[in-house]
Amino acid sequence: MAGERVLLVGGGGREHAIGERLVSHGAVLGVAASNLNPGLLSLTKDSGGEFFKANPTSPQEVLEVAKKFKAELVVIGPEEPQFRGVTDALRAAGFTVFGASSKASEIEKSKVFARSIMKKYNIPGNLDFWFFESWEEAIEFLERAGNVAIKPARQAGGKGVKVISDVQAYLSEEKKKVKEEHAKRILTEVMAKYTDIKEKLLIEEKVDGVEYTVQAFTDGERVVPLPAVQDNPHLFVYDVGPETGGMGSVQGPGKLLPFITEEEYKVAVEILERVVEAIAKETGEKYVGAISAQMMLTTKGPVLIEFYSRLGDPEAVNVMNVVEGNVLEAMFEAAQGNLKTELGVREAASAVKCIAPMGYPERRDLTKGREVLVPECEGAKVYYASVDVKDGKLVSGGSRAVEVYAEGKSISEAAEKANACASKVKFVNWKSVWRPDIGGEWYIRRRSEVAELMRSVWGLR
């Protein structure tokens, strides 16, 4: 596969990690992104490829880039290009594409579609759910709802999710107001810019437990799972604050996490296998590309929180570094509908720390255009994410700017190395926000305790 011309769509930390891995297998890398990611720019130069400034969600622009680059394989990194028909346009023009079609990517785009298809095909791990198209429909239900998770019905980059416990009778009126206010915010702010989906609000039964994600490659029939990773969506230490696109992730050592068993891993793999089969039946199209199951180990056992129609970010940074085997070959085979390559995993543990400007994720107007200073780090690697180069300076794009990766014999050792580097990433005249607790000894111990509690209750059911 050496010398194959591969066009990578997207310009974030996930794409930097994917691009690095593809180049390691000998790919000549092209990149189509709206931001000038210095990590990806360097990879294109080193491999003899080319960086194209283009809107990654525009089918027409990406198609023009693919033609100009003479791509032999196109890899779609983020979800939005899939939702907006980029994959469809490329395939229609004869390109070989690793990425879900617009129909298949509904599994992430529409949380209602995902829950409904699990219910229809009796796929394990589903939750009770209710969906609404308007505030008027939702208000009556919210007045009598108990413990619930309130979400945008569409994938919105991790924004708008709120989990509410309503167990104290003396606070029931206050909790009802919180539910109603948050639901209105989702409808008027988060979902206002999306016109490509009918359902606006999703309400699910609330569950507690330990989250984990299993990602996979598929050609629409065979599913090749990757090692389990745990992402951490909360902004601040000790899992508090608003939910984000992910503030850091841990993996290993090896295929499992210290607090997740082989059986729990296999449940996630089964869900992925069955949903890939169900999508083909439901849409008439094979699911081709990466697919991920974000899971939670609860008192009901492992349940599905949501699907991704791509690799996670930052979870991709972990797996692209520890997976054994030829990732380029696996992607090319999957895109051709003939996935045969086996992918293993090194017996290493890893940790990723995401660094964002203070104000993320709620005040992106304050987080854009901040100059970023990234140090040289020993024992860790830096992946560039939501950044751009302007007037010779590295500036933030409003989201997580840098993702720091490190390995160790244990997650705690890897996290310590990542922390040493993350602490040196600075924004000029602005504060940063990141999670030094992710992967630490308290973190592992706490999740192990919660997981054991969930299993003990689940075993009594």
TrEMBL record:
GO terms for molecular function: ATP binding; metal ion binding; phosphoribosylamine-glycine ligase activity. It holds the Pfam family GARS_A. InterPro entries: ATP-grasp, ATP_grasp_subdomain_1, PreATP-grasp_dom_sf, PRibGlycinamid_synth_ATP-grasp, PRibGlycinamide_synth, PRibGlycinamide_synth_C-dom, PRibGlycinamide_synth_C_sf, PRibGlycinamide_synth_N. Gene3D superfamilies: 3.40.50.20, ATP-grasp fold, A domain, ATP-grasp fold, B domain, Phosphoribosylglycinamide synthetase, C-terminal domain. Residues 115-336 form the ATP-grasp domain. Pathway: Purine metabolism; IMP biosynthesis via de novo pathway; N(1)-(5-phospho-D-ribosyl)glycinamide from 5-phospho-alpha-D-ribose 1-diphosphate: step 2/2. It is an enzyme of class 6 (ligase). It comes from the Archaea. Its EC number is 6.3.4.13. Keywords: ATP-binding, Ligase, Nucleotide-binding, Purine biosynthesis. One of its GO terms (biological process) is 'de novo' IMP biosynthetic process. PANTHER family: PHOSPHORIBOSYLAMINE--GLYCINE LIGASE (PTHR43472), PHOSPHORIBOSYLAMINE--GLYCINE LIGASE, CHLOROPLASTIC (PTHR43472:SF1). Belongs to the GARS family. This is phosphoribosylamine--glycine ligase. It comes from Ignicoccus hospitalis (strain KIN4/I / DSM 18386 / JCM 14125).
